[in-house]
Amino acid sequence: MCKVFLPHRKEHMENIRNFCIIAHIDHGKSTLADRLLDETQSVSVREKKDQLLDNMDLERERGITIKSHAIQMNYIQDGVAYVLNLIDTPGHVDFSYEVSRSIAACEGALLIVDAAQGIQAQTISNLYLALEHDLEIIPILNKIDLPGANPEEVTDQIVDLLGCAPEDVIPASGKTGIGVPNILRAIIERIPAPTGDPEAPLQALIFDSVYNPFRGIEAYFKVKNGRIRKGDSVKFMNTGKQYHADEIGALKLKQEPKSEISAGDVGYIISGIKEAKEVKVGDTITNVERPADKAISGFEDVKPMVFAGIYPVETEDFEELRNSLEKLQLNDASLIFEPESSAALGFGFRCGFLGMLHMEIIQERLEREFDMTVITTVPNVSYRSFLNSDPDKMVPVNNPSDFPDPSRLNRIQEPFIRAQIITKADYVGAVMNLSIEKRGILKNQVYLTADRVELTFDMPLSEIVFDFYDRLKTISRGYASFDYQPIDYQDSDLVKVDVLINGDPVDALSALIHRSNAFDIGKKMCLKLKELIPRQQFVIAIQAAIGAKIIARETVSALRKDVTAKCYGGDISRKRKLLEKQKAGKKRMKQVGNVEIPQQAFMAVLKLND
Description:
This protein is of the alpha+beta class. The chain has 15 helices and 31 strands. The protein has an eight-stranded antiparallel β-sheet. Helix 8 (318-330) crosses helix 9. The model is unreliable at 1-11 and 49-67 (pLDDT under 50).
């Protein structure tokens, strides 16, 4: 049976527009996306709801976009039908990898700026990502209906940043729908149609994937060259695996199966893939019979910043946790994990995250989507140790339990990074104080404009793991943007701070800390744990120790039942007898009682400055 190759209509490609929405967190991306769906009548009245593309409960509860979401809209302008493929992206710095994936599948971007807040860190960061991929930028001034809006000043900021004309900036309101028709017209007129040869061998970039428990793994792709048909034999170039395209289609609100998807268009493929590791975001799909010469290049690599152990509460759930992490990794390619073990917690995984919010979200998604109750250890980085027995041999220290006995230790090294912080001139002093407090060494200071400064620091990676991002955002009112590159390992005076609960060390709460900060952090950890550990019928001693030396202590007092309430008058010996009996019971209970440490306690170190 021979296949009939239908001539591809060139005008079809000219009527496709692929674009994403980029902005700082909470500047109104998802609300504006809702208005675009309304205007193009892509959603029926029955399906309509706020934050339509944010389909995770977690996204709705927190009011943030965590996953990028693709949807196809059909729109008629001046009697011509257009296909608009929109990708709504996250705004938080921890999810910048999601943004980079979306940008790789687009030719244009809507840059949304809040008329009340102005340009902020992630606006600049995401804009640079888009400009690196030569995207056409359409600036939009959102929330112009707010009482606190300052449209003239913020328009000037956008003009300075982009070098565009003031009339290129489209005033809009996601809430009321002002300016939405102008945005659609600008998308069609300003964003170029996708380029590509529909007759060339198939090259399609996978920019996202999700796990469907009934149908296996669904990969979302953009066709760069060629075309893909239902029933084709396809090959994933990175993994070398071959599959049948059982179903392909368009990403509308509900998936819409199609018989063919051509160059320039976006769609999904279901091919019965069950193994999560067989689909890699950034991979290229090609045809088995007529393969492409090379894969699509230029996809951004993941750069995890925070490492932590994730352990199942029940040891027998280890394999189930592995499967859950693999499925999460499918639609969150920035999650990296490898097996590790702990004396207190058993077998688990050492995971790499883009930041603290990313880590919290992964933990919540494990609990909600996979019903996995997990324990997350204190985040850290990898160190190198050298022992007295062989000073030239490096022994890796991946978590505090691997830390060698100080009497055998020759020296220890920690990873250093070169950090670039771009901020407004008003916040330079506060940013420098924070960086120096985190053991940073100022290397360079450059004024990019009269109001924007780039500061370059060398600092230990371990210092940015804890609360650096949160505090940087706070002191700069969300304006500072941050990037880093690893440089080398340097000798450091590190000590292992253990946490003891009633004399028993809890290795999941241990941390490797610079000696100059150890006493301060030990005290704060004890205070934080005192708040979090619930009171028992007996006294709980919380201690921080370096080796055998206790450096801090807090006590959680016992819950006391009033055993003398029933004594009305009478001899004092009656009351004393009851109190002595209670005292003996509490002493016995302390010997046999277990202290259950809540999950928040394992995250306590991260919130020490709250």
